[in-house]
UniProtKB/TrEMBL annotation:
The chain crosses the membrane at residues 7-23, 117-135, 147-166, 172-192, 204-224, 230-256, 268-289, 295-315, 336-353, 359-377. This is Histidine kinase domain-containing protein. Residues 668-756 form the Histidine kinase domain. It comes from the Bacteria. Gene3D superfamilies: Histidine kinase-like ATPase, C-terminal domain. CDD domains: HATPase_UhpB-NarQ-NarX-like. PANTHER family: NITRATE/NITRITE SENSOR PROTEIN NARX-RELATED, SENSOR HISTIDINE KINASE COMP. It holds the Pfam family HATPase_c. Keywords: ATP-binding, Kinase, Membrane, Nucleotide-binding, Transferase, Transmembrane, Transmembrane helix, Two-component regulatory system. One of its GO terms (molecular function) is ATP binding. InterPro entries: HATPase_C_sf, HATPase_dom, His_kinase_dom, Sensor_HK_TwoCompSys. GO terms for biological process: phosphorelay signal transduction system. It comes from Ureibacillus manganicus DSM 26584.
Length: 756
């Protein structure tokens, strides 16, 4: 990093050069009078700004005698530039042979004074303050920061010295020429160290120091112009060619870097180079090299160079990758809305009020800036007053949801802390993230089972942790500290820190607060579950049986199953038996023998049917083949029976499931049995496919049909023992159960149970 003394020497030299440049620039107002030589006389041939001719009654054909009290023949500038760009006064002869003295001031062309003096001066001062700010807040890659500061100051001086260049001020020529070619070389040096900071290294960067010979060559050429004025035009083309080639090299380096290493920081550099430099190259440099005439003046085009300084500064300070995408996306979103509103207002103003196009553009620019700033102010107020923030891509909401989904599956508090630390470390890009327990009564930290590599909390005062409240996030010099859970004895403290101590944005702080709120509630619930499991284990070890509420729950479930079975028996077999009893009652009064034989035959068939139904119910309650021939035989028989009863095509594929748990085969059988029963009763499908596969020591069942499907919201209020019962069975084995269905789009069910 530049030493403090050396830095302030650079700033002092910068201010001295700038003071001289802007002092000399102020001495002569802009006039823009075009002249040409006829018969040894310099005749006024036109005006770059028509206001000058109208204001001072100057006409084409007037003969110019003196400029700033210097005879016209002694003015060397006119030999290769037929334009009087700046002058305090002129002496001329009108067509009426009248000799006139005309004096100019900056008030004659206020717009040009603003473009050629106020804008460069503002850019000069902004660059100075920006350089000081960068030096005072040294973050990121300090070697790259050195060249970034020098680049910003060099560009500001090069832009500010353009009025002196037009005046052919010799010192201004040297400053502008040297600093113009020096700025892209400093930019390459910045890219070299910044790419190194991003772990991108090219052999090309090893030759950059040879390019510093170019400013020396330009300096010598400019010195020679003092003695050989005819070299001015040639030197101008040479300098512009050097500048053009160096800028193209910068653009190529950044473009290739972004293609090979598509990082967010390089994306900012790409836009920061292409956007400001392209207008300058296309509208000024290239036309001046090949056509000897520019399209727009440098005073207007240099405004774009502000984007270079601020873009590179932002890239330098963006310590985390997603910061850049976030700010760019938010700026694009706000800018788009601001632009649309501005266009609507601009069109309305144009048709309601008759104003000139330049004035309308000025008003539109002002409206656009005000609306854009208003969006940022509103965002700040929403966060302060309502804790509401807008995120263009919803990244933080997605990250919060993903984090909750991951830690929600943990059953151990220590495991929860480890997962939370790992996730926050990746999302917020902090190097050190961990949770440490603080004993409130003893006022000391409790040793963690997992060793902490960089214990930042030991460097902080104990009073900070004593006074830290739940969900409070403190930003210390070393790290962020927050309490994620608190009970009577302990506080669980989350520490987030790194070497550069990255600052969290409002969006990240709000997301972190919501995550802490969920984590606190989750820890409370996890502790209740752990206490419950501990009690159950204790009772099991002591042979005390199950707790009364557990036995009550089991009895209630058994009663539900009994009621379900009783209802099925009542609706089927019992109704048929009642019908048979009534028919037998009517037979007591029947005298016709043939009729009696017919009815007895019918009764026999119905009794056989009832017997089959009873056998089916017995098989449902306890499949006989399951214990004798195994799961596959029982499932194959179930498939055969289903094909006889069903109106759909059944594709049935099963693998041999090996398990030591004797309840798993029955679980699989019940699940597939319920799937087939639902398919027969409700699906109205023509095609059903069921697969049973091995899965991580357990099993996986896939079901699919092309039936009528249903609305999944019905399941929430349904009291049916079908799909709800399947879900509860899977949950008891800590398995995975998912239903994917919509009306008229069939049903897909995915079940996975691991090693149990």
């Amino acid at each position: 990093m530049i030493s403090r003394k050396y830095f302030w020497i650079i700033i002092t030299i910068y201010l001295l050069i700038g003071s001289y440049i802007f002092y000399e620039s102020y001495q002569s107002p802009i006039v823009g009078i075009e002249v040409e030589k006829e018969d040894n006389d310099w005749i006024i041939s036109g005006f770059k700004f028509s206001e000058i001719g109208e204001l001072h009654q100057i006409h084409k054909g007037d003969i110019l005698l003196e400029i700033n009290d210097i005879k016209i023949d002694e003015t060397t500038k006119l030999t290769y530039d037929k334009m009087i760009s700046f002058a305090n006064s002129i002496k001329l002869i009108t067509s009426d042979e009248e000799i006139r003295y005309i004096y100019f001031s900056h008030h004659d062309l206020p717009t040009q004074f603003f473009n050629n003096y106020i804008l460069p001066l503002s850019y000069f001062l902004i660059a100075c303050f920006l350089a000081i700010y960068l030096y005072q807040h040294q973050k990121g890659n300090k070697q790259a920061l050195n060249y970034l500061i020098q680049f910003i100051l060099t560009v500001a001086i090069a832009c500010g010295s353009i009025p002196l260049l037009i005046r052919l001020n010799w010192f201004g020529l040297i400053i502008n020429s040297v600093f113009t070619v020096l700025s892209p070389i400093l930019l390459l040096s910045f890219l070299k160290h910044y790419y190194s900071f991003l772990n991108i290294r090219w052999k090309f960067f090893n030759f950059i120091h040879y390019l510093y010979v170019i400013p020396i060559i330009v300096f010598l050429l400019t010195i020679l112009e003092k003695f050989f004025t005819w070299m001015y035009s040639i030197d101008t083309v040479i300098i512009l060619l050097f500048f053009f080639l160096l800028v193209i090299i910068n653009i190529i380096v950044i473009c290739i870097g972004y293609v090979k290493y598509p990082k967010s920081q390089i994306k900012v550099l790409l836009w920061g180079i292409v956007f400001p430099f392209l207008p300058f190259l296309v509208m000024y440099v290239i036309p001046l090299i090949f056509l000897q005439k520019y399209i727009f003046s440098t005073s207007i085009l240099t405004i774009f160079f502000l984007c270079i300084s601020f873009g590179f500064t932002f890239a330098q300070f963006s310590e985390r990758l997603f910061d850049i995408d976030y700010y760019i996306s938010r700026l694009k979103y706000y800018s788009l809305y601001s632009l649309v509103i501005t266009m609507v207002l601009g069109i309305g103003i144009y048709f309601i009020i008759s104003i000139s196009i330049p004035l309308l553009l000025t008003i539109c620019i002002f409206i656009f800036i005000v609306i854009l700033i208003s969006f940022y102010i509103k965002e700040k107020l929403d966060y302060v007053n309502r804790k509401v923030l807008f995120t263009p891509h919803g990244n933080y909401i997605h990250q919060l949801y993903s984090t909750i989904e991951v830690i929600g599956k943990t059953v151990d508090i220590n495991d929860l802390f480890n997962k939370l630390s790992t996730i926050l470390s990746k999302q917020l890009e902090f190097e050190v993230v961990y949770v440490v327990a603080f004993n409130v009564k003893e006022k000391k930290f409790v040793e963690n089972k997992k060793s902490i590599v960089n214990p930042i909390h030991q460097t902080l005062p104990i009073s900070l942790f004593e006074n830290l409240h739940l969900m409070e996030i403190l930003n210390t010099d070393a790290c962020y500290v927050t309490c994620i859970h608190q009970d009577v004895e302990m506080k669980q403290i989350l520490i987030l820190g790194n070497r550069n101590h990255s600052s969290l944005k409002h969006e990240e702080l709000l997301s972190l607060e919501l995550l802490i709120l969920f984590t606190n509630n989750f820890i409370d619930n996890t502790k209740l579950v752990e206490d419950l499991l501990s009690k159950l284990n204790t009772m099991e070890q002591r042979d005390q049986g199950h707790p009364y509420w557990f036995e009550k729950l089991v009895l209630l479930k058994l009663e539900d199953e009994k009621n379900h079975l009783a209802q099925d028996l009542h609706d089927t077999i019992l109704q048929e038996q009642i019908f048979l009893i009534r028919e037998m009652d009517s037979m007591l009064y029947e005298n016709n023998v043939e009729c009696l034989q017919t009815k007895i035959g019918d009764f026999h068939q119905q009794l056989v049917s009832i017997n089959h139904q009873l056998r089916a119910y017995c098989e449902i309650l306890k499949p006989p083949l399951l214990d004798t021939l195994g799961l596959n035989a029982a499932l194959n028989k179930l498939a055969i029976q289903t094909k006889k009863r069903a109106n759909f095509t059944l594709i049935f594929s099963i693998e041999q499931i090996e398990t030591t748990n004797k309840y798993i085969p029955l679980l699989i059988y019940r699940l597939i049995q319920e799937m087939l029963t639902n398919a027969i009763k409700h699906s109205q499908a023509t095609y059903v496919k069921i697969q049973l596969l091995k899965y991580e020591g357990g099993f996986e069942i896939s079901y699919m049909d092309n039936g009528i499907g249903f609305d999944q919201s019905i399941l929430k209020n349904s009291k049916s023992m079908g799909l709800t019962g399947m879900r509860e069975r899977i949950r008891t084995y800590n398995g995975y159960f998912e239903i994917d269905t919509y009306p008229n789009e069939g049903v897909q069910i995915q079940i996975r149970v691991g090693d149990v």
